[in-house]
Amino acid sequence: MSDSPFVLNQVGPVLEITLSKGKANAISAEDSRKLNRMWETFRDNPELRFAILTGKGEKFFSAGWDLKNVADTGEESDSDYGAGGFGGLNYPRNFNKPVICAVNGIAFGGGFEIMLGCDIIVAEEHATFALPEINVGVLPDCGVVKLRRRVPYHVAVEMMMTGRWMDVEEAKHWGLVNHIVPKGQGLKKAREIVEKLTAGPPLLYPAIKQVLRMTEMVPENEAFAVHDACSSVETVNRSEDMKEGAKAFAEKREPEWKGK
């Protein structure tokens, strides 16, 4: 049984992260701080452009907060989880690189909340989701903020107040996952998505993420001003790639992206 919270595998510009601690890929506060540092290193490494996040095994993506550790050590629910919050993806700073999530089983509590912090979500057909913190007297911190912004109010409230489970079909219905794949095929599908993204214009992905993040709760008329002020948008507008895209279209050929 692994005591390491995650295992890394770099494939070219892609960093694959596998949550790996114990039977349920659970995460303590110390583990969360390690994950935060890992995400910060990924963010700041210009050679890495995309990440894939998954869990070890076939049963769990992640059970979230390590309650066994809480019982053993008395770890508080408001412990220091790192600058980006629990798991590093709740509110990371200046994090504009795409993260693809391959949910390979149960994602509940903090594991479900980490999934919500990803950009494109692939779920295997047996995956299930829940915020069962109500059963142990803990507030689902990220859930009360993020889930309401992803699904209708009444769906979010029922999940948090009852701790009920959601299957993969319902999650797809509410837009919480992008793709449902057969058991054991989540990582394969995630890699296919990243392969498609890798062939695209490198400057666009950070711009899309930055604008989405900075305009999420901004009125539409104000959002355009925020859009125009984003540094990543300015980079795109002044880039050689933008000129190359128009030129390739006119010449009826595939563009050759340079990322500048």
UniProtKB/TrEMBL annotation:
The keyword Lyase applies. It holds the Pfam family ECH_1. Keywords: Lyase. The keyword Lyase applies. One of its GO terms (biological process) is fatty acid beta-oxidation. GO terms for molecular function: lyase activity. Belongs to the enoyl-CoA hydratase/isomerase family. PANTHER family: ENOYL-COA HYDRATASE, MITOCHONDRIAL (PTHR11941:SF54), ENOYL-COA HYDRATASE-RELATED (PTHR11941). This is Carnitinyl-CoA dehydratase.
